[in-house]
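[job 0412] stage=fold_complex status=start
inputs:
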Amino acid sequence: MIKIILYEDNPQLREGLTMLIDGSDGFQVLASFKNCSNVVDEVEAFRPDVILMDIDMPGVNGIEGLKRIRQHNHEVKVLMLTVFDDNKNVFEALKNGANGYILKKTPPAKLLEYITEAASGGAPMTSSIATQVLKMFSEVQVPAGEDYNLSDREKEVLQHLVNGFSYKMIAAEMFISIDTVRSHIKKIYEKLHVNSKSEAVAKAFKDKIV
Amino acid sequence: MIKIILYEDNPQLREGLTMLIDGSDGFQVLASFKNCSNVVDEVEAFRPDVILMDIDMPGVNGIEGLKRIRQHNHEVKVLMLTVFDDNKNVFEALKNGANGYILKKTPPAKLLEYITEAASGGAPMTSSIATQVLKMFSEVQVPAGEDYNLSDREKEVLQHLVNGFSYKMIAAEMFISIDTVRSHIKKIYEKLHVNSKSEAVAKAFKDKIV
DNA sequence: AAGTGTTTCACATCAATATGTGATGTAAGA
DNA sequence: TCTTACATCACATATTGATGTGAAACACTT
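[job 0412] stage=fold_complex status=done
writing structure:
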């Protein structure tokens, strides 16, 4: 028996979902609420397995509710429920520990399947959501993975620059003269197409050279 | 009719999958291969809708195959197929534009459903994989998002530093004297607990101040 | 009204950095 | 062998940066 709490501001939908889920074998709706004002206490009191959480709610919305829940409880599965698959909310929800993200237009049979999946540790997602998630991953990619052809020694020097070492310190650290350090740095600037330490350090981070 | 190419080094599994898929209505296996050596040419020649790609293959593996495909083709849907849901491969695959990631133990009916989902632009994932993906998201979270209490003006100066501006340039840019710039920078160093421009720039990136 | 933090400016000094020019030895490739 | 890239060192000089000390104007809070 999977125990469920439901958060949904629309009374009709709240009633409908409750009847659908509660009327199905193996599912029990413990309670339903129209907003997340007291979400922490409610979760504490009812100890559900799965929470169905609408995103758009007046007062405390679903994302905020999720955050509050996760401040106290990392066990309960939270399934986000929404009309739109807008990028920003999806990312926010997942980042804050949602266990799944499904659209309200999901057919009833599929919804029950998703709840079951969430309860057993899965991460059900409507396919359009999943597609977005994948897109976020590929967007993380470095545009062209620029290489700059830094030699090993040059990378080493750049690493020290990033750590805030002075030329003198780098020289001591690498057992070379300060002039050699200069020479390396000059070369690094050329290769990175920059002309100051700050830019080199910034570029090192941006392009994940270090 | 969904057209499919299959990459799988195990002959039994390759045959089995081919028969299963090709024998189902609406699915057609155009060809199957035991490695990705000529993946680019093969995709070009057969123009499939979906590619089922095993990860572990001798020679050119699935991840590498995926990369090669994506260098030329961003349209074809690539479904990664694997025995293990090991973190590293999942991330690599998704980062390189895989459209889905499913385990080989997926039951036949579910497999066909996943292929259909991929073909229609979805992103099918075995639930254990989806869980991992979500975990990666929540791990991306900034530890505590340190604040450092930089004033607006100080943030502005820091931003310029990151862009590689000299004190003189910052002064000109902000219509203040170079001494004021110095004063701001001094304060920034104090607040960030650093004592050089490079460290400040590095910290700005690390802690996402800029 | 006194205190606090921000923003602004000034003068001074020493350390560090950027840039140019030039040179040597070594290892890998064409 | 000749070339190229790398790593090393040297000398010179102008600019920039780090740090200290001091101070005035302003907004906001107590």
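[job 0412] summary: The mean pLDDT of chain B is 88.
[job 0412] exit 0
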